[in-house]
Amino acid sequence: MKSFLPFLLLLFFFPNVLSAHINFPEGGRSAAMGNASVALADFWSIHNNQAGLAFYNKTSAGFYFENRFLVKEMSLKAGGATLPVGSGVFGFELVRFGNELYNESKFGLAYSRKFGDYFAAGLQLDYLHKSLGNDYGKKGVATFEAGLMTKTKPDITLGMHVFNPIHTKLTKYADERIPAVMRIGAAWSFDKSIILSVEAEKETSFDPSLKLGLEYRIIDEVYVRGGLSSNPGQYTFGFGINLNRFTIDFASSVHNVLGFSPQFSAVYNFKTKR
User: For residues 230 and 258, what is the distance between their CA atoms, to the nearest angstrom?
Assistant: First the structure.
């Protein structure tokens, strides 16, 4: 019961910071940029906006870890891989949030492709599972998510993503449903050294959230990042390093009441872009 108590207290006093755990943006890069990720095309597009996989277009595998508010019962782990095939890119991901007493997990299979040089669309089929320990119950449901991404100019990218638009029902007796989440945003590149990313998010039953992120390349292969978001209000920071085929990113978000949430991700590229 002691290991479950921190989760219950956070759920009671701060329900919005715990919403949609499995759909919370992933990757150390976006985490450091206020989670303004819907218009960023990188490996973690397998979770943040599947349309970005078509612009990423690499064979890669990666891992992500977040220790939310330094509470081990609220840790999130994710892994996945991407594979360009023919005219598109496949991706899959596995995500797990929580511990043995309460946990949520997700398996997703995605496909993304370009339509011309500047537009891409992506679709992902998901299986979501929620479990309460000590035989209190468990339930699994299927849903989907989809995204669009377009480069209006070489230095401007627009992105849109929707998770679970059908508002899938989790239980019948209480009409408990998986939240639907809509995100839209843009990213601007300046002088190939600076990226500014903005995003608006609306989740079922919660007020909209606004996000802002900045990435600056100090030298080749070394990046520093910062960001902030509203609802919940927090600021973020971090850095990234490209080491040959490895991309390593460190980040942390800071909530003014609940404190730090450190994040880490690592991605390995098996081969260069086609």
Answer: 15
d(CA 245, CA 195): 22
CATH superfamily of 26-269: Outer membrane protein transport protein (OMPP1/FadL/TodX) (2.40.160.60)
Residues of the chain with pLDDT under 70: 1-22, 134, 173, 272-274
Closest CA to 66 of 77, 56, 57, 55: 77
DSSP code of residue 52: G
Q: What is the pTM of this model?
A: 0.90
Strands (DSSP E) found in the chain = 60-67, 75-85, 88-98, 102-114, 119-132, 137-153, 156-163, 169-171, 176-177, 181-190, 194-203, 209-219, 222-229, 234-243, 246-255, 259-269
Q: Per-residue pLDDT tens for 64-106?
A: 999 989 988 889 999 999 999 988 999 999 999 988 888 899 9
